[in-house]
Amino acid sequence: MLSLRAVRTALAIASACAVVALAPAAGAAEKSRPASARSVQGGGAGGVERIAAVVNEDVVSMSDTQARLRLMVLSAGMPDTPETRQRLMPQALRQLVDERLQLQEAKRLNITVSQDELDKAIGKIGEQNHMNHQQLLKFMADNGITQAALTDQTRAMLAWQRVMVRRARQEVVVTDEDVDAAMERIKKSAGKPEYLVAEIFMAVDNPNQDDQVHRAAERLSDEIRRSGNFAAAARQFSQSTNAASSGDLGWVRSGELDPEIDKALAQMRSGQLSPPVRTAAGYHLLLVRSKRTIGGGDEEEMPPQPVAQMVRRPDITKAKVHLKQIVLPVTEPSQRKAIAAQAEALRRTIKSCSDFEAKAKASGIPESGDMGTLQVKDLPPQLQNLVMGIPVGQPSPVLNSTGASVILIVCKRDAPLLPPEQVVQKAAPPPPAARPKTPSRLPTRDEVENMLSQERAESVARRYLRDLRRAAFVEYRV
Questions:
Q1: pLDDT recorded at residue 276
Q2: Which of 11, 99, 218, 473 might form a disulfide with 156, Cβ 3.0–4.6 angstroms?
Q3: How far is CA 346 from the centre of its chain?
Q4: Distances (CA, A) of 353 to 63, 325, 327, 406
């Protein structure tokens, strides 16, 4: 019997396209001409600016491209150097071209995004980075990123999300027979390995693009290995619908993905990043977060880790911070909960470094007050990440231990803010106790149905954008 699951698929796409921390997205067509056209008319010497690309009736200016580069580099936690920008410029320009095509298609379908929806999406970006709207804009301005760079990307993503929800309702169908066949294949795979995988996908729509996309994938892989963050890089650079969820594919089994990907995964260990893997659709960078045996009794090689923890963090140990603290000592175990609550209430009243210092003095605790300028490398590892990850002038989360509750504030820092995925906001927990070996269970019908829906939605999304590219007039001028 045929059963339609398009609505569930549409919801899956919507959740996959959600806006996440400093990896924004985009929106629908504006009431007036596109931002790129305004930039070209208003920028550069004599009011004329160099054009980077023409996309049907729209243009992408060089200032658009440079602004997107700064946003991508900052969001992905990469070093903002001329070399990094040069390596990533082709990918930034390609992303802007795709967004113009997505916005043009949204306009053709009369799909729009309201200013209120755009404001809410940007508000979520701020919340995920522990900033309000004004703090987010100031942080971006301090790093040379215009507000337009963020709003344009966010507007395009929101618009394309709506386009894909509509398309999925029309095209994506999963039948009971499809689910039965998939479950039978999974049962036959019992005893074989399965992998917890994240990916960055870069499409190749034309054989003539193969070398260019391959080089771009290699450059991105090098940047991630050198000093970047896979999760943030996936959100900024991947052309897959799972980009907003840090490229996470979940647990995959042999035979579910392309044969080339199966072959690459079979040779990888947990925590390893692959070189670019070519499939018929394009190039994939694969990150294996964990491995286990389907339906077997083998313990995982390592506990599943957040995607961001599987790559090397940027070198932050050369940085210096001006640090202050408030210490509320715990003299009796029975006081811990009350002291922690008191510290949290105090933290919420702190608005600035001067406010923090006044409250530290008022506490009367000798340990509270100005700690001076410190080398980050001299701090405990969990505090290194914390002081590099909280905005200047904002109090840290309360750090609770058996002897005290502590609040920190950074009043000055000579290095960029760490991406939120790399911030440890509380003391590191003790090593986990040895876990008993537990078998991985076979998925339920609902889980298999959802897996098939997402696979087909992903295929529809890739084909849709590929067709838009092929039908468009696109001229690159850089």
A1: 94
A2: 99
A3: 32
A4: 36, 10, 15, 15
